[in-house]
Amino acid sequence: MSPPIISEQDVPASIKAELAKAEPDVDILRTWFVAEYQKTSGTPFDINSATVDDLGKFAGWLNFQILKVDLLVPISRAPRLQNKYFANYSSKVTSISQRGCLICRTGFPVNIVNVRLPPVSRQAIKGPHFKAMQAAFKERFSKLAGKIGKDERLCVAATFVLSPSKKRNDKDVDNMAKATMDALARAIGFNDACVQHLDIVKLTFPDSEEYMVLRIAPTNLQDHDDTIVPVQHHSWGGTEPINLDDWLASGAASEP
To answer: How many C-beta atoms lie closer than 10 Å to residue 213's C-beta?
Structure first.
């Protein structure tokens, strides 16, 4: 049996105002949701001392409300890129490469790095060529060294522009990102393990110069202060965990 749905008429004006903000105060919403949950369930509930199972029940109730109450939908949904057409290929690349992140609440500074170098795969560039790439990045992007902290958590949007008229235009996006991020991190001195979100786009245009654009910004993705119920309570829908030891024999036998 489904739980009762919150009536929008019963939502206080202060909560409506909070929900209308681009970044609502989660502490305020959490307090109100807990009060509504207690009212609905008829039982006391303290989010700070509740068991994992009780927190899971609360999260289930909250997800049901977000799905059913129009006023609450904006909490969990973000807008998409709104452009419907572009003046030319260049304006399309500019718009996409400077896209704001729909996942991270990024901070400042936001660094846009234009790299007029054909994207390369990490598997293809090694030894002297990779060292040359590092040296070029170190000279061209030396000003970034003081702007990006060595262990700063980062959100990176990478855009790779390719041309079908060039050789090997079928590069994998992950391999291109690996080569670029490795070279840039080593050149200007930040830890690429601190990249928390990597958003990769590959665009192909006829007879285009091949290049790449990186948008680098700090992120607070790991702060989790945007989460109302501080627990992971996943049902998995019957999906069983995978133990690779159970598949070693069959995996080795089917290896190409």
So the answer is: 20
